[in-house]
Amino acid sequence: MSTESHRRTSRITDALLPTPSSPPPQAPEPHGPRPTGVASAPLPAEAPSRPVPTPGPVGGAATGSRPEAEVPPVETTTRLRPIRDHAPAPAPRPPHHPEGTRPAPSPPPHGAPHPSSGVPWPASAPSGAGQYAYGTYGAYRPSPYPGVPETPAETTTRLRPVRERRSGRVVAAGACLVLGLGLIGGAVAGAVLAATDAGAPAEPAGYAQARTLWHSVPVDTLFPRTLPGPAAGPGAATRTWTRVVVAADAPCSATVLSPSLLTALRPVGCDRVLRATYTDATATSVITVGLVFTGADPATTRTLSTQAARLGADVPPALSAPGTVAARFGAAQRASWWTRPLADLPVVVTSVSGFADGRPVTRPEPAEKAMTAGSTSAPAQAGLGHEARGVANRVERQVRTAVTDATKGEDEK
């Protein structure tokens, strides 16, 4: 160091160091005054102040101190830099470990609460717990940073994206649905119809035998000479009818059938017509009964049985016999009639009643109306409605009996 530099340093040192004028005050004892009789340790001696050398002439040694007036004033205040607001220290980043060299964290202590949920840690963890952090819901999940507390893992299942619907697919699905419903409905309807057809026989028993009764059964079987009629008259009075005349079998025509019945049977077929006339025990009334054998199939026969009102809209023709009580029984003497198509046999039973003395009837009435209680018409007062229905019912029974006998005969053969 040069002499000039040494001088400059000495002046700065003299200005900064205080001049020792009096000893510094001693600090009080931290625990009160020292007890009496205890030797005090000697304090270190005060270091003497270093004399400030006074630089001499250039190139010479220091000769002493220079007067203060000769020392230039030196600025002793240190400039302070502004203190900025301290920003929060960034969180320490976990050390980087290459793939496969990351150390396994130690499992948490038993009973310590979880930092986020407060739930105590389990006593034991499943295998491999050292490589996982315990989650909020009790499941071990991988921890990306060993030693750093892990936030609760999200447990919501990821939803798959919903694709945009296309109108073509909707239309195709609707068409398939309609087609499927139609197929199912058709199958159900077919099953119901099959069950119905299976439950109802295609042809009732004795149906075929009934077609041939008009020529295979004796006339006395279908039209007995006497027909008993217990409780068949008005007020449940007993009636007995006696056969007066029997006509030969005839084809279906307007002379033996009423117009309405003939019109209804033409489409289905009409084979033959059998007729006979009966009279009551007093010979005051006469009744013509007829059996019409049709060519209808069982289904059509069942349909005809529901149309009795249409088939019996007109009065059937009467059968007279000269020299008998039915000699004057003609179209003008017809008073009441009855028409009944059988549902299980291809037969239609008809009957018409009138006065035996030839008395004309202005307004004939169906048997249902003539049997109404309180009716005051001439056919009702004479009980001709009961006569027509009673004879027809007894002849129908004879037909059914003949069919039963014919069926039994064929079974025996």
Automatic annotation (TrEMBL):
Residues 386-399 have a biased composition (Basic and acidic residues). Residues 1-124, 143-162, 356-413 are annotated as: Disordered. The keyword Transmembrane helix applies. The chain crosses the membrane at residues 170-195. Residues 20-30 have a biased composition (Pro residues). It comes from the Bacteria. Keywords: Membrane, Transmembrane, Transmembrane helix. This is Uncharacterized protein.
